[in-house]
Amino acid sequence: MARKKKNQDKTETPVEEVQAAPAAGEPPAGQQAAAAADDRAPSDMERLQDELTAAKDEARKNWDLYLRSQADMENFRKRMQREKQEMARFANEGLLRELLPVMDNLQRAVDHAREEQAEATALLEGVEMTLSQFARTLEKFGVTPVEAIGKPFDPSCHEAMGQVVSEEVPPNTVAQELQKGYRLHDRLLRPALVMVSKAPETGASVEAEAATGAGEESETDDN
């Protein structure tokens, strides 16, 4: 019995599962997966490249905005610094302008005393000292007189009050100063009031004017 069972075990073979064979013409499954991965690889690389390019463009734009904002801030800082300096330089402009009439009165007193020098020598010396001290004080704050006498007429700092015939200076030159002008640093506080020279009339001009006047008188008489 045992021998019969042993022979039966020898004749029976184990049944193994047989995998289905791939259809004719189709690559194995492993090759199909590799091919699919190869197909996806180029599209992923292109997407990553596009994202990288977009990120670089955005970074470049942000850097340009940063540089522009830095330049704007620097310009603003410089402008504020200039305005602060201008404010400090001209802070006393109103006060100094109000002091100028006092300077004018002292100058008039000196001029009048010079005309009566024999009777007012002591007064003249005292006023001149006060006037000089006042001028030095104004100069410390940046107030300087406008040059006028003998200078070409400049409407930016001279105000013409009239014309005067003069042979001593060229035409359109300041021949007389009626009131001093002053500057505060490079800003005009007030213009100088001046008389401007003009050339004397020549003989031909006088004769022409006389002839014109005579003609006008004769026409009047005829009428």
* CATH class category name of the domain at 143-203: Mainly Beta
CATH H-tier superfamily of the domain at 143-203: Head domain of nucleotide exchange factor GrpE
Number of helices: 5
Amount of beta strand = 5-15%
H/E element sequence: HHHHEEEEEEH
The chain-level mean pLDDT equals 76
What overall geometry do the principal axes of the alpha carbons give?
elongated
Proportion of residues in helical segments: 55-70%
Report the sheet with the most strands, covering strand number, pairing sense and barrel closure.
Answer: 3 strands, antiparallel
User: Segments where pLDDT lies below 50 for 5+ residues?
Assistant: 13-21
Structural class label? alpha+beta
| DSSP strand count | 6
Going by CATH, the architecture of the domain at 143-203 would be Roll
Major beta sheet, strand line-up: 1-4-5
User: What radius of gyration results from the CA coordinates?
Assistant: 53 Å
Distance between the termini: 181 Å
Q: Would you tell me which CATH topology of the domain at 143-203 applies?
A: Nucleotide Exchange Factor Grpe, Chain A, domain 2
Subcellular location: Cytoplasm
Biased composition (Basic and acidic residues): 37-54
Region (Disordered): 1-54, 199-223
Subunit structure: Homodimer.
